[in-house]
Structure formats: C-alpha cells, structure tokens
C-alpha cells in the first residue's frame, strides 16, 4: 500500500517492488491514492506493507483493526512518529530486507467517542496548542521539493514556537480514571506512541501494548519550559521533555467548541456549535492491531 506522493515521490513503485522481489516476497502493488485500495484490503494476503508517512499508515491501519492481519511500515514521511516507536527505521530497502525473521506484536488503538460518532486513533489526540498547530500546519504546508526531513521538522517546530509565544491557556474539564484533572492548559495530549507532531518526544517511555496511554499537559507555569524545549530542538541539542507524564486507561472531557485533534486530523472536521457542553470519552482498545516488526539489523 503505497502513497506515491510521500517523500516528494522519491520512492517509486518500480524500486519498491524490485526490493520486495529481491528479498523473496511476492507482492501486489496498490496506490493509496486510488479508490481501489479499500477493495484490495478485503483480501490482503499475509502482510500489509504500508509505504508512506503517518497519515498513510493510520489510513490503512484503521481498516485492519480486529482482522489479525499484520501490518508493517516503510517510513517515507517526514515525522514518521509511528515508525519511530515501532522500530521501522532506515531506508525502505533495509526495512524490506529485515522483514524476513520479523516478530509479531500487539498494538493498542485509541478510541474517541463523542457527539460525532466514534473515531480510532493510533498516535495520540488532544486539545490546545498541538490541535491548533495541526490546523495551522495545513495552511502553511507548502514545502519545496528539495527540502530535507530535518529542514521540514525545523520548519514545523518553528511554527509551533511562534504559536506558543502568546498562545492562551484554556480551561479544560478533564477526568482521568475517575480523578479530576480540570485546569487551564496550553496543551494536553493522550499519547499512544512516544512522539507526536514534528517528532516531539512528549512521552519517551510510551509503549503500544500495555493497554494504557500517557497523559501529557502543559500549564501556564510551564510555558517557559516548553519554549526552552523547542529552542533546544531548533538548535540541534538533545532535550528531554521537562514535564511529568501520567498513565491512564480512560479520559473524559467536556467539549465546548475548542479545537481537538486525533492523529493528524481535526475532530470534528468543521467548526461545530453546540448548545451545551458535550462529553468526549477516550479509551484504549487493547491489542486491536498486529504489527510485524522487522528483525534487528544484526539478526538480519
């Protein structure tokens, strides 16, 4: 399942299929930009290999929930947050060479339920700064074809920093596993993987098979810490996320027209007006996916 636009289209169908054949795999090609990809997934074979960025991975993974069909990733995007956490690192040809001998692992999926129905998510969801960043990033997403991944990441972190400078903390009514965590937050995130957005490692110890998510929040008193964290990232320095992380299984919020995101999509997609605050519940669907992780480079 290939997004031919990922990575500025540098990885073409012919190259990927040749690498798969060389590794001894019989593969059927499908572009995720064609309508037929949904039909192909009804009879996906032994493994679904997704070549693309995080958006492409979640697009396909959503259709493999509870099927038992394993999924693997060729990271062709910019952030590749899912691939980073799952161990799909390196050029596509190297990942393909290490599929043989890979191990299957379970992967938890997030479930958000609200007035607009049910939405599955794989990286994380939240409100505040990162949700408004998702909206702003789409408006500013005019990247030159020659831009490197590092340059693209820096561009997005710079955008986040500009937004953070005078971003107002908002009141959020939040319940985590029965305990009140309501407060004024610049951002809050329910994270399933270690990084979010432009590879921001807000939950460095997150795992995807423990039936729990990580809750990350930034209040007004933490603004300078987050600014310093962004500055260190832009300077190319290593910087651990400076705030604590809390594990949870069930989170509830009262939604009052604030922007929410789940993975790289806004929810609801368009601005909605409601007469009364609406409850949104976020829970974990344990072991909803099967991931085939490639063998280590040494084992391969």
Can you offer a commentary on this structure?
The protein is an alpha+beta fold. It contains 8 helices and 15 strands. It has helices at 13-22, 37-40, 54-61, 81-86, 92-97, 129-139, 149-165, 223-234; strands at 48-52, 70-75, 103-114, 117-121, 124-128, 170-172, 174-176, 179-180, 183-191, 213-219, 246-248, 250-255, 260-262, 265-266, 278-293. The strands form 2 sheets. Strands 1, 2, 3, 4, 7, 8, 12 and 15 form an 8-stranded mixed sheet that branches. Strands 5, 6, 9, 10, 11, 13 and 14 form a 7-stranded antiparallel sheet that branches. Strand 1 (48-52), helix 3 and strand 2 (70-75) form a beta-alpha-beta unit. Helix 6 (129-139) crosses helix 7 (149-165) and helix 7 (149-165) runs antiparallel to helix 8. It is globular and about 55 Å long. The two termini are 24 Å apart. The model has no long low-confidence stretch (mean pLDDT 91).
**What is the 3D shape?**
globular
Low-confidence stretches: none
How many alpha or pi helices? 8
Helix content: 10-25%
Number of strands: 15
Radius of gyration: 19 Å
Oligomerization state: single chain
Biggest sheet statistics: 8 strands, mixed
Summarize this structure as a short list of keywords or feature phrases.
300 residues, 8 helices, 15 strands, seven-stranded antiparallel sheet, single chain, alpha+beta, eight-stranded mixed sheet
């Amino acid at each position: 399942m290939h997004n031919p636009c990922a990575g500025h289209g540098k990885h073409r169908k012919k190259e990927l299929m040749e690498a798969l054949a060389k590794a001894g795999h019989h593969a059927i090609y499908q572009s995720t930009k064609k309508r037929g990809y949904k039909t192909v997934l009804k009879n996906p074979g032994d493994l679904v290999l997704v070549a693309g960025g995080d958006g492409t991975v979640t697009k396909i993974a959503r259709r493999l929930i509870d099927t038992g069909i394993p999924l693997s990733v060729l990271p062709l995007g910019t952030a590749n947050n899912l691939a980073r956490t799952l161990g799909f690192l390196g050029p596509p040809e190297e990942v393909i060479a290490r599929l043989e001998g890979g191990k299957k692992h379970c992967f938890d999926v997030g479930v958000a339920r609200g007035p607009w129905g049910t939405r599955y998510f794989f990286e994380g969801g939240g409100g505040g700064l990162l949700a408004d960043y998702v909206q702003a990033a789409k408006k500013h997403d005019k990247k030159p074809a020659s831009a490197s991944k590092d340059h693209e990441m820096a561009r997005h972190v710079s955008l986040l920093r500009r937004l953070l400078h005078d971003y107002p903390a908002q009141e959020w009514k939040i319940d985590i596993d029965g305990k009140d965590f309501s407060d004024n937050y610049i951002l809050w995130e329910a994270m399933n993987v270690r990084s979010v957005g432009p590879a921001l490692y807000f939950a460095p110890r997150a795992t995807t098979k423990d039936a729990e998510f990580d809750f990350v929040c930034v209040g007004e008193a933490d603004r300078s810490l987050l600014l310093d964290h962004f500055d260190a990232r832009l300077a190319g320095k290593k910087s651990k996320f400076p705030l604590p992380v809390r594990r949870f299984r069930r989170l509830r919020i009262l939604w009052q027209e604030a922007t929410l995101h789940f993975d790289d999509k806004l929810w609801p997609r368009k601005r909605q007006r409601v007469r009364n605050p609406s409850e949104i519940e976020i829970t974990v669907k344990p072991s909803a996916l099967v991931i085939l992780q490639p063998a280590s480079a040494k084992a391969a």
